[in-house]
Structures are given as C-alpha cells and as structure tokens.
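Q: What residues go here?
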C-alpha cells in the first residue's frame, strides 16, 4: 500500500483527553501498517513540538490554531457555513495538505473529525476514511432544544448546516467511522448515508492499571472523583448538576464525602463550585491515575454524551466503582459492572450505596476492570481498520 495522510484537528499527542486518546491510537495503528504523514492543528503551544510523534510519522506539519471565536463566528455568519468549520479554516493548513498530496505517494487520506474534512481535495485520487467519531450535528441539535432566544437559533443553525456537510462528506468517503453502533445508526437514520461503520474506543489497560507505577494522591476515604476536560460544556454541566443536586444529599448520609473535579482548563463557573462544602477543583494534573486510584467512587453524571466515554473506561480499568448517568453509559458494553442512573435521585442512591458498602464497591471495581480487559483492548477495537485499508490478514501479520 502507499502512504497515509492523517488529518487531525488536534495534535494526537499526548493521549490525555478523549479526542486525542482516540486519534493517537488510530495513528499508532496506521503507523504499524504504512508510512504516515501527519497534518494537524495545535491549540496549545506545547503541541507545536512533540518529538514522540517522530517514531510514528514519516513527516509532520503542525499549524498553530489561534483564530478568536468571535472572528470564526462572524465568518460563519457571513459565509453561510457552520462555525465548527470556520473555526478550523486556515490558509496554512490548506497549503500543508496540498504540498503533502503533491509530494508524497498518498493512497489513503484518513480524516479525524469533521472539522478536517474541509481540507479534502475536490478529487482526492485516494481512498478516504472519515472518522466522524460522534455525530456533531446531533449534539448541536440537542443544545438547541435546551436553549432559548438567539442561542436556540444559533445552535439550530449549526445543527442544520453541519448535518448537511456531514452528509456530503459521507457521500464522498469510502468509509465513515463512528465510535459506537448507536452513533452509527443515528447517522444512517438522519442522513441516509451508506458505508458507515462503528469502531469503538479502547483503553490501555497496562497504563490504566491499579498495580502500575504512579504518584499516589492522599485524599481521604470517601472521595468522589470526576475527570475530564473542564472547558467542555457537557462536563461543565455534569459537575454543576452533581454539586448542586446530588452531592448535598450524599453528604447528609456521608458528611465526610468529598468531590474532586479533576481536569484541565476549568472556567469560572467550574472554579466557583469549589466554594461549596466538600468540593475541590484541581485544574490540570500530571497524572489522573493517582486521583482515580484514590477514589471511593468515580462519577460520570453527564446529561449529554455522545459515543463511548473514555473517562468511564479509564475508571473501570483502574478497578474503581463507577456511577454513570444513562447518557454516559449508553455507548459502553459494561455488562452490569457499573451503576447507572437516569435521575439525580438514582445517582445519589448509587453513590451512597457504594460509600456504605465498601466490599460491594471493591467487587464492582474488580468486575469492571475484568470487563474492560475482555472487551476494550485497543488492538481488538481497531482491527476492523485493516479491511478498510485494503489489507489482508497476511499483510497485517507481516507488517
């Protein structure tokens, strides 16, 4: 096979947040099968030079993304395009992609996230694999249902325009990938698209292992932990809901209970939650495993969630008892190894039960880790990519 051009809306390293975890493992899988050329945006100065990617790529071009949101918004309104695209529209990236396609023997273009599909040439002349991950237009449609006034109109506009773009891209792609069967079915139903596949997220169970080496966190015996990127709206809504509607009732039964919100870039709304009794907002941490290992319970009370939640897989792999909302658990084949609730009362009851019965909590955690090991290893989850690349099993074995 020829070379692969990998387009990513964020540099796929380090694998320390949901999208970068998936893109990193996709990149690593592809790099084991052919020469990969990476073109990606960096929204963090540290991502402009990631030497760790040298072993995975034949060449790399990183473009710093610094367009202000207000500028992207004005461009979207003026052009009639989705904000999701204008925010990632950059002349330097267009040059980079054109140069790589002209210089290298590319026979597969792997597009990670819909924002990067705008860089596909009109006539690709190569196999196109489009990893949408989630159906972003459905996310904005859900936002529109909850919003009012101008924001309702803006979200509805974004949902409609983005779905039209997603549908057009899928029609051009040789395969369109989604993170779960449910997400793939949603996309097929909404767009009528064909050649749609589900490739689930996995988990590195050697890294996320309670027996691995990592710095411990001393945080008491009744610690409840949430992990995630804390400038992401669904995460902000999740921790706000937990602090305001669930934690006070948990602390009636367990006054010693504390809630740690662990993740980078907490905004003012998240930081303000630390004013509540028993709440800690850590900001970015060097290694989330110490906080997970210290947790008596890990919670994922997301009201809006798409696909498979890495935060849940990581907690399961660390043998922690997990309490998840129905939305957060929907894409995960957990086989009853996590507690799931639809309402604040459901989640409160599940947390209280686990805090009261530590033996049951430990057993649930052990079962969750066993389930993840059996079901979510990255090699098994990404194996279907080989057929999409046109590789026979004998070629993979020889790679």
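A:
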């Amino acid at each position: 096979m020829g070379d692969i051009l990998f387009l990513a809306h964020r540099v796929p390293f380090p694998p320390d947040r949901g999208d970068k975890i998936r893109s990193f493992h996709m990149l690593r899988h592809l790099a084991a099968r052919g020469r990969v050329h990476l073109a990606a945006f960096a929204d963090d100065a540290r991502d402009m030079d990631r030497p760790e990617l040298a072993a995975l790529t034949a060449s790399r071009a990183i473009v710093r993304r610094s367009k202000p949101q207000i500028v992207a918004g004005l461009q979207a309104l003026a052009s009639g395009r989705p904000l999701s695209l204008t925010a990632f529209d950059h002349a330097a990236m267009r040059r980079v992609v054109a140069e790589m396609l002209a210089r290298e023997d590319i026979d597969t273009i792997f597009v990670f996230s819909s924002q990067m599909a705008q860089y596909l040439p009109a006539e690709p002349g190569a196999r196109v694999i489009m990893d949408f991950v989630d159906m972003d237009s459905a996310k904005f449609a859900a936002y529109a249902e909850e919003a009012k006034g101008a924001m309702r109109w803006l979200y509805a506009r974004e949902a409609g325009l983005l779905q039209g773009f997603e549908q057009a891209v899928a029609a051009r792609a040789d395969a369109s990938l989604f993170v779960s069967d449910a997400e793939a079915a949603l996309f097929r139903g909404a767009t009528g698209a064909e050649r749609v596949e589900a490739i689930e997220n996995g988990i590195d169970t050697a890294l996320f292992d309670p027996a691995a080496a990592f710095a411990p966190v001393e945080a008491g015996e009744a610690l409840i932990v949430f992990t995630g990127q804390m400038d992401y709206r669904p995460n902000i809504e999740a921790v706000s809901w937990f602090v305001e509607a669930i934690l006070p009732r948990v602390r009636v039964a367990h006054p010693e209970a504390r809630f740690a919100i662990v993740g980078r870039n907490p905004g003012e709304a998240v930081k303000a939650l630390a004013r509540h009794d028993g709440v800690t907002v850590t900001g970015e941490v060097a290694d989330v495993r110490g906080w997970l290992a210290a947790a008596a319970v890990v919670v994922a009370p997301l009201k809006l969630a798409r696909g498979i939640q890495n935060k849940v897989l990581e907690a399961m792999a660390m043998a922690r008892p997990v309490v998840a909302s129905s939305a957060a658990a929907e894409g995960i084949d957990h086989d009853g190894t996590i507690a799931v609730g639809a309402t604040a009362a459901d989640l409160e009851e599940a947390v209280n039960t686990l805090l009261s019965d530590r033996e049951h909590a430990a057993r649930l955690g052990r079962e969750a880790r066993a389930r993840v090991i059996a079901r979510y290893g990255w090699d098994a989850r990404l194996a279907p990519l080989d057929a999409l690349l046109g590789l026979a099993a004998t070629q993979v074995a020889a790679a």
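A: Context that may help when evaluating the design: The first helix runs from residue 18 to 31. The radius of gyration is 21 Å.
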